[in-house]
């Protein structure tokens, strides 16, 4: 992996050089991990004119949630507890003879930006922008392998829950059980806060579990994901509890399933982000559910659960091969509940079989 991290840093350095910056400081945690193999709390990465350096507040632990630093990368622990690694990196860059420094302005606060200038007043600061995020868009085989395992773990946890008794249990209890099962199957932890919604709460994408108990005839919607070696999967499914689904439940479920299928089928290298969104959204628009739709039909996944690209009506850009995304349309009807279906996939060309589905739990409307 050392060669992989070195190559990533070399590509970023080339961009910095082309932009007129002799050095760069990366401070956003996911970006630090992508380039250095690990992102201990408060760490920053210096791409210096003479040497690259990972600066940390304390000695890295190598725990799964922070990763293991690239062994070929120099490591420096700050002498002052609570020191700012990005500020220390700017000081070191100036000491290495840099006259310009690119920084992630979208991550730094105004106070930290001023602190950088105060320790290295002769440095000309430039905005690195989202250069690292753009490098992260297309995943290599190792990254996709981690995503595939994260998806398998989430599938296992969800599958086991479906085999248990659900009536009478609270949303909060089910969410906690799912997160425990993720860890039992080898996850670093949940990829995000697990959402379980039942009855009137079902189908809401950002629902926080409550003490509402599962009742017969309810829709039950679940959205969870696993983190594995830093990479994050996402899956969402909706079921009916304990009885034959009502006609309105079948109709709504079939509609959301059709929208999700349309979105999945639109995934291809060269497809515009907004066209993927439109493919799924138009199915629900035509049925009169425009006001009940989420603002985004899907998004990228990787070291963060919600990263570029965004599959949204106004999104600009086109998909590349080997970009993992979610497709997650849903409809929530206030006072009744709703349906959400969510998968993690990897964009592939038709010659490779089309989009690769990573989350494989059945999308059949089951009565549990």
Automatic annotation (TrEMBL):
The keyword Heme does not apply. Keywords: Aminopeptidase, Hydrolase, Protease. Residues 146-348 form the Peptidase M24 domain. InterPro entries: Creatin/AminoP/Spt16_N (IPR029149), Creatinase/aminopeptidase-like (IPR036005), Creatinase_N (IPR000587), Pept_M24 (IPR000994), Peptidase_M24B (IPR050659). One of its GO terms (molecular function) is aminopeptidase activity. CDD domains: APP-like. Residues 8-138 form the Creatinase N-terminal domain. Its EC number is 3.4.11.9. It comes from the Bacteria. PANTHER family: AMINOPEPTIDASE, CYTOPLASMIC PEPTIDASE PEPQ-RELATED. This is Aminopeptidase P family protein. It comes from Streptomyces cavernicola.
């Amino acid at each position: 992996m050392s060669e992989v991290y070195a190559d990533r840093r070399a590509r970023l350095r080339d961009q910095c050089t082309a932009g007129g910056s002799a050095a760069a400081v990366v401070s956003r945690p996911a970006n630090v991990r992508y380039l250095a193999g690990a992102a201990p709390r408060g760490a920053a990465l210096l791409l210096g004119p003479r040497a690259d350096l990972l600066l940390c507040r304390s000695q890295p632990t190598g725990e799964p949630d922070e990763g293991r630093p690239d062994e070929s990368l120099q490591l420096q622990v700050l002498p002052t507890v609570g020191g700012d690694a990005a500020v220390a990196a700017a000081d070191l860059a100036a000491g290495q003879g840099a006259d310009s420094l690119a920084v992630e302005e979208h991550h730094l606060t105004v106070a930290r930006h001023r602190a950088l200038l105060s320790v290295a007043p002769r440095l000309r600061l430039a905005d690195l922008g989202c250069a690292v995020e753009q490098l992260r868009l297309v995943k290599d085989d190792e990254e996709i392998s981690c995503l595939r395992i994260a998806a398998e773990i989430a599938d296992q946890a969800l599958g086991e829950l479906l085999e248990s008794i659900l009536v009478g249990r609270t949303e909060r209890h089910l969410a906690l059980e799912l997160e425990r099962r993720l860890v039992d199957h080898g996850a670093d932890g949940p990829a995000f806060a697990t959402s379980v919604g039942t009855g009137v709460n079902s189908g809401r994408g950002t629902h926080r579990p409550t003490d509402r108990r599962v009742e017969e005839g309810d829709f039950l919607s679940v959205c969870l994901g696993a983190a594995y070696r830093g990479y994050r999967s996402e899956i969402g499914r909706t079921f009916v509890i304990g009885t034959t689904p009502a006609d309105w439940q079948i109709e709504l479920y079939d509609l959301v399933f059709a929208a999700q299928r349309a979105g999945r089928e639109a995934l291809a290298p060269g497809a515009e982000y907004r066209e993927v969104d439109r493919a799924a959204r138009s199915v629900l628009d035509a049925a009169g559910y425009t006001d009940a739709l989420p603002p985004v039909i899907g998004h990228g996944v990787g070291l963060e659960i919600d990263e570029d690209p965004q599959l949204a009506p106004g999104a600009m850009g086109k998909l590349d091969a080997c970009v993992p995304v979610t497709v997650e349309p849903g409809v929530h009807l206030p006072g009744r509940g709703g349906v959400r279906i969510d998968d993690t996939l990897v964009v592939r060309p038709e010659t490779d079989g089309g989009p690769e589905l990573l989350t494989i739990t059945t999308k059949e409307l089951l009565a549990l």
